[in-house]
Amino acid sequence: MPQVKFIEFDGTKHNIDANNGDSIMTTAISNLVPGIDADCGGECSCATCHVLISSEWQAKLEDTSETEESMLDLNPDRSAESRLSCQIIVSDDLDGIVVNLPEFQY
Amino acid sequence: MSGIVIIGAGQAAGQAAASLRQGKYEGSITILGDETQPPYQRPPLSKQYLSGELGMDRVMVRPEKFYGDQNIALHTETRVESIDSSAKSVTTSPGDSYQYDKLLIATGSRPRILTIPGSDLSGIHYLRTINDVDGIREAMQAAKKICIVGGGYIGLEVAAVAVTAGLQVTVLEMEDRILQRVTTPEMSEYYHDLHTGRGVNIMVNTGVSGFQGEGHISTVVCGDEKIDADLVIVGIGIIPNIELAEAAGLDCNNGITVDEHCRTSDPHIYAAGDCTNHPNPIMGRRLRLESVPNAMEQARVSAANMLGGDKVYASVPWFWSDQYELKLQMVGFSTDGDTSILRGDKAANQFAVFYLKDGEVVSVDAVNSPKEFMVCKQLYGKTVDPAALSDTNVELKTLLN
Q1: Which of B17, B294, B365, B394 is most open to solvent, judged by the fewest CB atoms within 10 Å of its CB?
Q2: Contacting residues of B for A34, CB less than 8 Å apart
Q3: Predicted-assembly ipTM surpassing the 0.90 threshold
Q4: The domain B4-110+238-306 belongs to what CATH superfamily?
Q5: In Å, how far is B351's CA from the nearest CA of chain A?
Q6: In terms of Cα–Cα distance, which of A72, A70, A73 is closest to A85?
Q7: Is A10 exposed, middle or buried (0-12, 13-18, 19+ CB in 10 A)?
Q8: pLDDT, tens digit (0-9, with 9 covering 90-100), for B234-272
Q9: Roughly what angle, to the nearest 10 degrees, separates helices A66-73 and B370-379?
Q10: Which CATH number fits domain B325-399: 3.40.50.1010, 3.30.460.80, 3.40.50.10860, 3.30.390.30?
């Protein structure tokens, strides 16, 4: 079971044993990790599941799709580490991935 | 044992229970819902769940195990019959009684039902629940001619799935254009052309007067006109489920009346989601919304306030609709605008129509244009240069400064 390490904006850590095939977003909301709203339920329609992932881990992820890129582009907290967590599917390759949560979702 | 009781087991109920536990509430949480499943996402039902693209597991908001793990008592297939606000208890149809310290009413809404000759024939469906859609999916396997009553978002989403699946599709709309209740003539025309281009037959100014068939639907009657159909989906709007609240003496007026804290007229009772009529401080008026983001955020606000918080619900409404490969994302109400500004190319199916009122941005309809959708969330209520807004060479980001 791959582990996902969520870190809230205030530094609170949540180490979660995730299911392969679930998204990072689903992993968060199924385990009461705060900071992800996920209003659209994972359809890449709302951008309320914004997270920050370091470049080392980003290298193991699929590139952002055009839709994800567009949704992120106008996020006021956008950085090079920004991703939408509904678009990242957990696998054994991602065991130990560190996911930083922003202060707000927009 | 008292605690928090939630009536309804839809998305607002599930989110409220999760938010209560996130808020470190350790008391009892009881969810009482009359559906078969734990809280699930309703929006995909008329889209990817109907088409078969998403299965049941992907539609669930959280796995069923979540509720047990979090010590949330989830009672499905349990209908609440009454609320006794002086005894602070609710009674279910099996006759069980639950005491509460705080009560959340998240009863949602139900489809408006047609009662015309023949409306009890088999093969006439409504779309609200997973069980409804399972029935429609099964019926679509055998059906050849589907008639959709009502040209709103639900009807058009079903039309898109059905025509893509190879069915002959007719959409009947009483008004002179589809989406009349929710959008501008310009967007109605765009979606009319989109659907007719894919082979959907749309009949406007056409009200249904009856259904005919030998036990099963075979003909939809619209005055003098008759349309062959072996499957009918009726999507003519919803009715908020306010009866329990009304019977308990709570203030209701086109929804359960709540304040900006999601409190009803009883200080121990809150309400969230489709069933509420709530103030929107940003828009300066009361709203009743049929919307998931509204249900989710009101659930979070209710949960915080049931735990003694002072959270205010103040969000600009937003919506989305998926038809074919097109994603429509909307902010605000286009009908609030006095001026519309087109950005992008309609012929390329990638454009946004912004709506301004007295020069301020109040809404957008964005088709395959997520940036325009995101920018409108931030531009709401702000004055912009219309020429810049319409010019795709102007980066939207520059308008935010």
Answers
A1: B394
A2: 22
A3: yes
A4: FAD/NAD(P)-binding domain (3.50.50.60)
A5: 14
A6: A72
A7: exposed
A8: 999 999 999 999 999 999 999 999 999 999 999 999 999
A9: 20
A10: 3.30.390.30
